[in-house]
Amino acid sequence: MSAIAAGPGDQLKPKIVATGLEKRYCSARGGETVAVMGVELSICAGEFVCLVGPSGCGKTTLIQMMCGFEPPSAGRVLIDGEPIQGPNPDHIMIFQDYGLFPWRTVLGNVVFGLEALGMSTPEAKARAHETLQLVGLSAAAHQHPHQISSGMKQRVAIARALAVEPSVLFMDEPFAALDAFTRLRLQDEILRLWEVKRTTVVFVTHDLDEAIALAQRVVLMASSPGRIQRVMTIGLPYPRERTHTDFSEYRRELFEAFHLLHATAANSAV
Amino acid sequence: MWHRLGHWLLPVLILVAFGGVWQLIALFYPPALFPGPTATIEALIEVAINGTLWSNTWISLVRFFTGYGLALLIAIPLGLLFGCVGFLRRLFDPLIQVLRPISPIAWSPLAVLWFGIGSAPAIYIIFLACFFPMLLTTITAVKSVPAVYLKVARNFGVGSGMTVLLVILPAAFPGIMSGLHIAVGTGWIHLVAGEMLGAQSGLGYMIVDARNFLRTDMIMAGMLVIGVLGLGIYRGMRALEDLIGRQWGIGV
Ligand SMILES: Nc1ncnc2c1ncn2[C@@H]1O[C@H](COP(=O)(O)OP(=O)(O)OP(=O)(O)O)[C@@H](O)[C@H]1O
Ligand SMILES: [Mg+2]
Predict the structure, then answer these.
(1) How much distance in Å is there from the Cα of B83 to the middle of ligand 1?
(2) pLDDT tens digits, one per residue of A8-36
C-alpha cells in the first residue's frame, strides 16, 4: 500500500487509475505465477510516467493490463473514469518491435490507423502526411519498412499512433532495440511530440537514464511477485541535460533504490 | 560477365549432356523399345504438324487450371478460417490428417464411377492433388502471423472481418504463395494420371494412345512436353510471385 502514487499535480484530474491490480498466470504444470500484484497507481492527464524495473518484474504485464490487452486477475483499471474493457484507438500501444506492416509503405502504415477509424482515403492520406512531417519522415513516405532504419521504423510506429490523436500513449521498451545515438535522438523526439500533443504517456524501460530523461514520475518495480516498490518524482525542467549534476543526483538515487532491491531480493532468497 | 554466362550456360550444358547420354544409351536398344532424342523430336514434329499436340496441350492446360483454380477457391478461404479459428481447426484436424495421405490416384476408380469419363475425373484428381498442399500451407501461414500485427489491428479498432482482409491475408501471403507453388508441382504431376482415366484428349491421353499403338517415340514426346510445360508454369508462377512481392514490398 506504500505505492499509492499521487502525481506532481494531484490537483489535476486523474487520467488512469489502477486499483488492486493483479495478474496471475497458470503454468502448464498447474502452478501459478503472480506476475503483478497489489498495484495502486494514479496517472494524471498529460503526465509522462516511466515504469522501470528488472526483467520479469511485470512491466509488460502491467502496461498490457492498462491498455486492455490483458484482462486483470483482480482489481481494475479506469481510464477517464471508465473501466477498461479492451484495447481502444484512444489508447495506443507502441511495441518494441514496431508492429509495422511490411506490405504497406510508411504512408500506408499511418493511413491504416486512420482508415480503421472510418476516415476517407484522401482525408487519411492528408492527415498521415501531416503526421509524418511532424516526426520528420516526409521523405520516406513511399518506402517500405524493410527499406528504412530501425530508428525510422519506430518513428513510423509513433506517427501511426499520433495520427489517430489518442489521449494516452503506452510504450513498452520502444527504444530498447535501438543503438545509443538513435535512442537519445528518439528520446528528445518523443519529449518534443509530448510537449506538442500533451498526450498522457506511460513508458516502460529498463534504462534508468532514459527514465530520468523522460519522466515526470518514475515508478520503480520489484519482482517476485511483480509490484510497485516506490514512485519517484523527477523535478527537473525540460529539456533535461543528461550531464547535469541534478540529473546525476536522481541517477544516484535511482541506482541506490535498485541496489536496495538487490539486497532485499538476496535476503528473501536465503 | 563470366559469372552470368556460367549461370545460364552450365545448366544448358548439363541438359545437352543429358541428351547425349540418352542418345548413347539408345544406340544399344531397338528404337521401338528405347527411342533416342532424335526419334522423340521427330515424333514431336509429327504431332506438331498434324495439330494434335496443340489441341491436347490446350485441353490439358484447361483441365489443370480448372482443377487448380477450384482447389484455390476452396482451400484458401477454408485455410484462412481454420487458421484463424483454433476451435474449428482442432475439430477438423483429424479428418484432414486422414484424408491427406490418400494418394489422389487412389481416388481414380471412384472418380470414374462418380464423374464418368472425360474431363471431370481428371479435374477431380488435379483438384485433390492441389487441395491439401494449399489448405495446409494456408493454415500454417495464418497461424504464424506475428501476434503484434493482430494486436495493432485490435488497438486501432479494426473488426475481425477487416483484420482478416487487411492484416492476416497480406501477412500470410508469402506462406500461402509457397503452398500455391507446391500445388503447381503436385497438380501437374497428377495431370497424366487423371487423363489416363478414359479421357479422349489431353497430354495424358496422348501417352495412353501412343502406348496402344506401341509408339514409344510418341510416349517420350508426350513426357517431354509435360516436363517442359511444367517448367514453364513453374517459371510463370515465380515471375508472378516476384511481381506481387515487389508490389507488396515483401520480396527483399
Ligand atoms: N503469457 C504468460 N504466461 C505465463 N507467465 C507469464 C506470461 N507473461 C508473463 N509471464 C510471467 O510474468 C512475469 C512478468 O513478466 P513481464 O513480461 O511482465 O515482465 P517484464 O517486466 O516486462 O520483463 P522484461 O523486462 O524482460 O520485458 C514473469 O515472471 C513472466 O514469466
Ligand atoms: Mg517486458
Answers:
(1) 26
(2) 444 467 899 999 999 999 887 878 888 99
In terms of DSSP bridges, do strands A14-26 and A74-79 run parallel, antiparallel, or are they unpaired?
Answer: antiparallel
Cβ–Cβ contact B149 with A under 8 A: yes
ipTM, 2 decimals?
0.87
Q: Does domain B73-248 have CATH number 3.50.50.60?
A: no
Is B252 touching A (CB cutoff 8 A)? yes
Number of other CB atoms surrounding residue B161 within 10 Å? 8
Is the Cβ–Cβ distance between A220 and A59 less than 8 Å? no
Contact A43, A203 (CB under 8 A): no
Full-model pTM: 0.85
| Residue A226 CA, closest ligand 1 atom number | 14
Enumerate domains of chain A plus CATH numbers.
1-90+167-234 (3.40.50.300), 98-165 (no CATH)
Give the whole-angstrom CA distance, residue A26 versus residue A33.
Answer: 6
In a 10 Å sphere around its CB, with 0-12 CB exposed, 13-18 middle and 19+ buried, how is residue B19 labelled? middle
Report in angstroms the alpha-carbon separations of B64 from A30, B58, B69, B105, B198.
53, 10, 8, 15, 16
**Tens digits of residue pLDDT in A127-159:** 999 999 999 999 999 999 999 999 999 999 999
Q: Residue A6 pLDDT more than 60?
A: no
What is the separation, in whole angstroms, between the first and last Cα of chain B? 24
- Asked if residues A72 and A65 have their Cβ atoms less than 8 Å apart, the reply is yes
Cell of A168: 494516452
